[in-house]
Write a structure and sequence with these properties.
Blueprint: H1 2-21, H2 28-48, H3 59-68, E1 79-82, H4 90-96, E2 102-106, H5 109-122, E3 127-131, E4 143-149, H6 154-161, E5 165-175, H7 180-184, E6 190-196, E7 207-213
Parallel strand pairs: 1-2, 1-4, 2-3, 4-5
Antiparallel strand pairs: 5-7, 6-7
């Protein structure tokens, strides 16, 4: 128990300092909810192997700060988080943007059960959890924003979710190293910009691809 308390203190400091560096003014109550989510993830991860990150000292940067690094591009909903896994980046985004309806989708039943438990325990009325593949979701043009983190290639993400995105919607696809080749492989009817991301405490390079349909000028 003492070790867990120590982690909570360290997490609180890591999160507050990281958000300050990222210029993300998130109120203390929502920071507490973010840490409650991290506590559930750390607990369940011991048994169910939800993520590869085992070191509690790396959980704030790799899970919370990394997820929140794309927050400036999340301007409206509804939002679909494809391949959400343990709820990343969907749960952190939903916590800090309670005004946006978020659908968290994954084909792994073990992981969607965990995310449903998080939604219940934390009381997140703006979150819907769906156990399915993106291709099977029948909601044409429903989502203004589709996020993906560590899921397939950019072209694959676009291909399997394009029917779900609103005409003026956008994809926010999180990547590590700058994905120039993946952007070049996009079909000509799509356009994309690459933005470097700052994630305090994360030594690896992080980038965000913001993709959308090319609008007709005719």
């Amino acid at each position: 128990m003492r070790t867990q308390v120590n982690y909570q203190v360290a997490w609180l400091r890591q999160l507050a300092e990281g958000l300050d560096v990222m210029h993300l003014p998130i109120e203390s109550g929502r920071q507490e909810t973010l840490l409650a989510f991290l506590g559930l993830l750390e607990k369940w991860n011991r048994t169910y192997n939800l993520t590869a990150v085992r070191d509690p000292r790396q959980m704030v940067p790799k899970h919370l700060l990394d997820s929140l690094s794309i927050l400036p591009w999340v301007d409206k909903g509804p939002l679909l988080d494809v391949g959400t896994g343990a709820g990343l980046p969907g749960i952190p985004l939903a916590i800090v943007r309670p005004d946006i309806e978020c659908t968290l989708l994954d084909s792994n039943g073990k992981k969607t059960r965990f995310v449903r438990q998080v939604v219940t325990d934390l009381g997140l009325p703006n979150v819907e959890v769906v156990h399915s593949r993106a291709e099977a979701l029948q909601r044409p043009g429903h989502y203004a924003c589709i996020t993906a983190r560590a899921v397939a290639t950019l072209a694959d993400v676009v291909a399997c979710t394009r029917a779900l995105l609103a005409g003026d919607g956008k994809w926010l696809v999180m990547k590590g190293a700058r994905p120039n080749a993946e952007v070049a492989e996009l079909p000509s009817q799509y356009q994309a910009e690459i933005h470097p991301l700052t994630v305090p405490g994360e030594v690896g390079r992080r980038h965000l691809v913001v993709a959308s349909r090319v609008r007709s000028t005719g």
